[in-house]
């Protein structure tokens, strides 16, 4: 083990010197000063870990070898953050990516509830965020997204991850909602044989494990859906349903390996989370009909744990209510509408009202598909012209 540590430390020293050079290049570039400051801090942590590993390699105390594994794990996390995520995003960020970053900065300014001071954009995959550094996350966006308003509501879901991780109380309280929900179900008596009752209790316990898997990532995903539905309103629902139907998945199936809850449950949650001002709007009723038609005939599997137990309406309502309480407490602006009509969408004036613009885009697309291309191009042009440059 000590021979391995000596060799490994020599290898790490080479890597650390190279990383220092790469971070130095980014510092001289001066595009992301906040991010570079945090990357330098990451590098310092890695250097400290390397020194500790080197000291253990020369220490005869066998008990310290166990600590070496912990140091190697911590080093690997920081190494991945730098080499797999942040530095590639920095070096491959294009002028177009930086321009799109202006939209995210504007969105962040409108919300006023995230710790973001800097950000970096990387194109080539569907909307994803890597908030390894909360005040300077990476946003991954689809290629050519800078030319389109389509799919843009999904960006709010990704911002939701930043908000969620910046407020650890959210995770604690939402997990408590889940545990309490299933504990209450377990206490409810029912006239069934003891063997069936035992299986029911096992199923309820499994549901808790499902929702708490991997630091309750599925609860976090639901939070982000609820957040986006609150902030963007119907435009997010339209974007979400569009994505689900494009993927043509099974809305009522769940997987133990998928970090996302079933699509059917997510869709129902989004509709429930819509602000009251637009919940009964004709556009929303139409979207509900479209989704109902899509899921009709798609049967729930006979899984060991019933879908109705895992994804009940009662649980959904409890989670939506709790998230809505949190969003109101931290001052998240809720989409108040009204949803633009066709005339208002055609002549939409305040392009910096990004949430209003995205809802206008849905109205325009549905009312005038043939005229949408030129309308969208003009709106995107006006949006970039109006955005702050810094």
Offer a concise description of the structure.
The chain has 15 helices and three strands.
Description:
The protein has 390 residues and is mainly alpha-helical. Among the domains are: 2-92; 167-330, no CATH class. Helices cover 68% and strands 3% of the residues. The protein has 15 helices and 3 strands. The chain has helices spanning 2-29, 33-57, 64-92, 95-111, 154-166, 168-187, 194-232, 234-247, 263-273, 282-295, 307-310, 313-330, 342-346, 354-367, 372-386, and strands at residues 120-123, 128-130, 138-141. Strands 1-3-2 form a 3-stranded mixed β-sheet, sandwiched between helices. Strand 2 (128-130) and strand 3 (138-141) form a beta hairpin. Helix 1 packs antiparallel against helix 2. It is flat, with a radius of gyration of 24 Å. The model has no long low-confidence stretch (mean pLDDT 94).
Computed CA radius of gyration, to the nearest angstrom: 24 Å
Q: Order of SSEs, N→C?
A: HHHHEEEHHHHHHHHHHH
The best one-word shape is flat
- Quickly give the structural class: mainly alpha
Low-confidence spans: pLDDT under 50, at least 5 residues?
none
How many individual β-strands?
3
Q: Considering DSSP H and I runs of 4 or more, what fraction of the residues is helical?
A: 55-70%
Q: Please state roughly what percent of the residues sit in beta strands, choosing from under 5%, 5-15%, 15-25%, 25-35%, 35-45% or over 45%.
A: under 5%
Task: Trace the largest sheet across and list its strands.
Answer: 1-3-2
Mean pLDDT: 94
Cα(first) to Cα(last) distance is 52 Å
Count of helical stretches: 15
